Amino acid sequence: MTNNKGLTNEQRAGILVHALPYIQKYTNKIIVVKYGGNAMINEELKKGVMTDIVLLSLIGVKVVLVHGGGPEISDTMKRLGKESKFVDGLRVTDAETAKIVQMVLAGKVNKDLVNLIQLLGGSAIGLCGIDGHMISVKMHDERLGYVGDITGINTKPIYDLLDNGYIPVISTVGCDGEGNVYNVNADTAAASIAGALQAESLISMTDTPGLLRDKDDESTLIPVINVSEAPQLIKDGIISGGMIPKIDCCIEAIRRGVKKVFIIDGRVPHSIIVEVLTDEGIGTMLTGSK
Question: Any idea which residues carry the catalytic annotation?
Fold first, then answer.
């Protein structure tokens, strides 16, 4: 008997059996997913990503979802008549912009994702870095205003949710000791959170297949690199432009104790499941020095 996807029941069973070793490997382990890029804007891809996360949660993987929302922030600022300015790829954030960031990330984007996870059969609770002073920060550079460098992660709110069967959905807004609100880079936040949780892996979703030897040729994907290789890859120009800070965050996660970091293409449907529950993998895996 076949289903409407052309698979027999035996083939469907075989797929599940094939996934069993990976399910056993990740059961009760923590995976941090950094979510952004096109997969966050495209509604069909967004539903696919949230479906993957719900599936992993239901088979016993402890998933922590960390998200940004740059395009939504820029769109909201435009509608409010406020211009978006960037320096070295970071959003210039005055006090008014910091409030807009808090409103969009913690209020709209975060709750939309929580709602979607719930509709797909998962259990999620949304947090931002202000909750429980989870993400403590200091000012990165006065020229940028309220853009924060992370000084500490309070993992208790995250563990409390995981231990009670919830998927924590975390927006990257932080605060300092005086209660000032800061915009925090999502890649940086995900790496710090994954390290603080000693996660089994960090999955960073991007709009590229991974790290390419030739940025214009997707067939040149580098499937595995050791963090010790990164300086030479930067010197050779293979890691360049916007990939440099992303790789730096991945390396920082490894240094903080995360076992493996994956850079995967969020434009590919169900890329998280392919990466976690199959032996093929679709992106670039970073590992630590031996």
Answer: 34, 37, 70, 187, 246
